[in-house]
Amino acid sequence: MRTELYEIIEKRKSVRKFDMNSLDSVLLQQIKQFGEEVIPLIPDIRVKFNVYSHEEVKTLMAIKAPHYVGIYSENKDNFLLNAGYMLQQMDLYLSANNLGSCWLGMAKPSVALPEAVDGLDFVIMLAFGNPKEEVHRSSKEGFKRKSLEEIREGSGYEEIIEAARLAPSARNTQTWYFICKEKEILVCRRHTGFVTEHLMSRLNTIDVGIAMCHLDLALENRGMERDITIEDITVPKGFIHLATVRL
Q1: By the 8 A CB rule, do 77 and 242 touch?
Q2: What CATH number is associated with residue 173?
């Protein structure tokens, strides 16, 4: 059980200031090993984690870190959802080990590095290292998130949806939406309009994968049996259905 990952959800934060000294090689190897053990949302999508140094990454963002971890994936249906779900486990693992981390939607491996690894395409990365600011929140009040009522239709599963509510997202847009029924949670994201949808659909889908990681960890922590399926289900206008969690 991934108890350590679940327990850090209410404390994690995006760290943006890092000590630029490299981490110990033993610790880096432990991080790489964890990447080999991350549980996928969709098992038949091949993925790979790569760890980079500061010199091996190009980014338009002001955030600079000594290390980065990127996820590469097969370009298959729902690979973005799966990538978000998997890399968020790494984010929580780093936070649980008192390392700072931050999602970077505008960073890529250097042009000197290959765009694909073992036939897998680069998706997205995290910056990480020893923090130069507080690595954890002191309370949930520090989160700036939409209310439970804004992201959920129906009733029940409050503690489960709460874990998903606290997930990070690109530009803190929080486009996830959960339709709760008896023994079933439909996982959706908001359609953000023609222009924004074109620009943000990729990151928004990754974001829902991140929230699904939190939701699944909450279910697992409570010992709840669940079956997650990716299927086409009609949902209210303005939303895009991405997955169904049956309990």
Answers
A1: no
A2: 3.40.109.30
Any domain includes 139: no
- 247 close to 185: Cβ distance less than 8 angstroms: yes
On whether residue 190 sits in a domain, the answer given is yes
CA nearest neighbour of 233 among 190, 187, 180, 193: 187
User: Within 13 Å of residue 198, how many CA atoms lie on the same side as its CB?
Assistant: 2
Domain that holds residue 174: 144-246
* Residues 193-237 pLDDT 10s: 877 888 899 999 999 999 999 999 999 999 999 999 998 899 999
Nearest to residue 92, comparing CAs of 216, 2, 176?
A: 2
- Asked if the model's pLDDT at residue 132 lies above 80, the reply is yes
Separation CA 90–CA 229 (nearest Å)? 23
Q: Is 97 helix (H, G, I), strand (E, B) or coil?
A: coil
pLDDT 10s digits, 12-69 = 999 999 999 999 999 999 999 999 999 999 999 999 999 999 999 998 888 999 999 9
Count of domains for the chain? 2
Q: Give the model confidence (pLDDT) of 89-103 as tens digits.
A: 999 999 999 999 999
* Structural domain includes residue 138: no
Instruction: Please count the other Cβ atoms lying within 10 Å of the Cβ belonging to residue 20.
Output: 12
- DSSP code at position 49: E
CA 223 to chain centre: 22
Looking at the fold, whether 110 and 184 belong to one and the same domain comes out as: no
Which residue is listed with tokens 């949302």?
41
